[in-house]
Amino acid sequence: MAYLANPANTAAVLKKYDFHFQKRYGQNFLIDPHVLDKIMEGAGICKEDTVLEIGPGIGTMTQYLAEQAGKVIAVEIDDKLIPVLADTLSSYDNVRILHQDILKVDLEKLSQEEAGGRPMKVVANLPYYITTPILMALLEQRIPFESITVMVQKEVAERMQAREGTKDYGAITLAIRYFTEPRIIAQVPPNCFMPRPNVGSAVIRLTKHKTPPVTVKDEAKMFATIRASFNQRRKTLVNALAGGGIAEKEKTLEALRSMGLSETIRGEALTVEQFARLSELL
Ligand code: SAM
């Protein structure tokens, strides 16, 4: 099978299978080989790697991954694409297609079965309607992974790299920062996809920290504190945490004083280290 990463070959496969794009699945297929080269280079895939691909589509990126990785596990939700993938990937014996919703996959079990618990690399051109739930599932389910290299909406990539105090800074920034080192590796315009999305895209690589930037005894409590402060981000931290049922006002005030922070500070001004300290004091 020829490479699919160009408009003519993609159109030919779509026609052969009379495939119609499903908007609800966020289907925008890559048709630009240069973008795929950049993703492969950024992800640094080698023969020792087991790669988890989320949403292979018609197999455009899967072809590249199969050639560079030891093994590829590709999880696709759309039943119409399963026979297409069987065809487009038929010449590779190191690819396993799973017909499932990635949000319902037991990732820990998958990583045990497919990679013997060794860290995997995650690579995907993500369906944009569920970018955050997918990334949070990968980070919070604690599957062993080395890096996550994903195409996301440009604004989402910027949010992941945002600095504290800016409007882009949010709960997702802190979760990403706590577990990984984020780095945008390419900007990708709409004309690299079929059909063209209405938004710009970017490829971001999230490299897992070898040692966490901060140690916290109760991680769940820290994330609950973070979520509560950003759920009501226009409020002061003291009010947001009281409203979110995390801590009484007086308790938060006391903690802020002992950390040398202003009593009227908002959550968006705090670093991940400060959230860790605050949640312990509370
Ligand atoms: N990887 C292909 C490419 O780059 O051309 C397709 C990328 S397309 C943006 C996203 C893919 O994710 C689609 O194939 C879509 O059907 C699939 N998808 C959407 N929701 C999914 C889910 N919950 N679980 C698994 N795959 C999903």
Order of helices and strands: HEHEHEHEHEHEHHEEEHHHH
Number of domains: 2
Overall average pLDDT: 95
**Order of neighbouring strands in the sheet with most strands:** 4-3-2-5-6-9-7
The SS-based structural class is alpha/beta
Low-confidence stretches: none
Strand count, sense and barrel status of the largest sheet are: 7 strands, mixed
Shape: elongated
Fill in the CATH topology of the largest domain: Rossmann fold
Q: What is the CA-based Rg, rounded?
A: 21 Å
Determine the strand fraction and express it as a percent band. 15-25%
**Compounds present?**
S-adenosylmethionine
Distance between the termini: 59 Å
The helix fraction, in percent, is 40-55%
Q: State the CATH architecture of the largest domain.
A: 3-Layer(aba) Sandwich
Strand tally: 9
Figure out the total of helices.
12
CATH superfamily of the largest domain: Vaccinia Virus protein VP39
State the CATH class of the largest domain. Alpha Beta
Question: What can you see in these coordinates?
Answer:
By secondary structure, the chain is an alpha/beta fold. The chain has two domains: 7-208, Vaccinia Virus protein VP39 (Rossmann fold), CATH 3.40.50; 219-281, Helicase, Ruva Protein, domain 3 (Orthogonal Bundle). The chain contains twelve helices and nine strands. The strands form two sheets. It has a seven-stranded mixed sheet with strand order 4-3-2-5-6-9-7, sandwiched between helices. A two-stranded antiparallel ribbon has the order 1-8. Helix 6 links the parallel strand 5 (120-125) and strand 6. The radius of gyration is 21 Å and the shape is elongated. The mean pLDDT is 95. Residues 25-30, 54-57, 60-61, 75-78, 81, 101-103, 125, 127, 130 line the site of S-adenosylmethionine.
